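Ex. 9. Protein: Dihydropteroate synthase.
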Amino acid sequence: MNSVRNINYKFHRKINIKCGKYELNLGTRTFIMGILNITPDSFSDGGEFNDVDAAIKHALDMVKEGVDIIDVGGESTRPGAVEVDADEEIRRVLPVVKRLVKEVDLPISVDTYKSKVAEEVLKAGAHIINDVWGLQSDPDIATVAAKYDVPVIVMHNQKGIEYKKDILEEICDFFKKSIDIALKAGVKKENIILDPGIGFGKTPKQNMIVMSRLGELNDLGYPILLGTSRKSMIGKILDLPPKERVEGTVATTVMGIVQGVDIVRVHDIKENLRAAKVTDAIVRGL
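Predicted structure tokens for Dihydropteroate synthase:
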């Protein structure tokens, strides 16, 4: 019985990350990040929460279900999605962020890779920047994060699905470059979180390889966020549409926690939180 805990608990380093007045005590348990898409074309819930009131209601529903962080996105990053400029992204997310910081007593993250958007939402009170291009699309975003002294989630991404070396080796190389950008810009080491980018620049098979080897990312020494919720990898396995992939998502949540993941980014809060609590009790001894 203790062998499972001994193998896996070592992955979960205790790191306290400050998010304004909030603190994430990573390593003590798994934190749940809830997805709030303010977009017309997201793959799973596009258009459902475009209205500010609808977005706030959904956020409050997630709070009732036990979410720890709310992640607001104003541009769909699914394959084939239409890019939007910074001004349009700001128009979508800023009103929501302004209300969330007043009405929700939790850290607010914004999913953006644009420094102009980051500046506006952080000025409005957001606490975390979640960059799907790992600070490498617009490196100025690292300078903005350093200015406001906020955590940054650095996701692995690339154009195309070709890997010349071992896929985990290339992901780690990408992260080392992103970490270098962050540190040189003045981002504190303790404010960096890594996301392997499941569903981005990878085939379903490659995603499964990364999922099976998540533990290798712990060698980099940073907390890990996992975002698999309702993604096509799960759809390919189950042959089900996005909203029927809850159980598949839960399976990946459990697998991630066992391999050292600290935060899971999900649509379905209640189900993933329950699974995380059980997994934490076994893996972390809670």
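Check your answer against this statement. The two ends are 14 Å apart (CA to CA).
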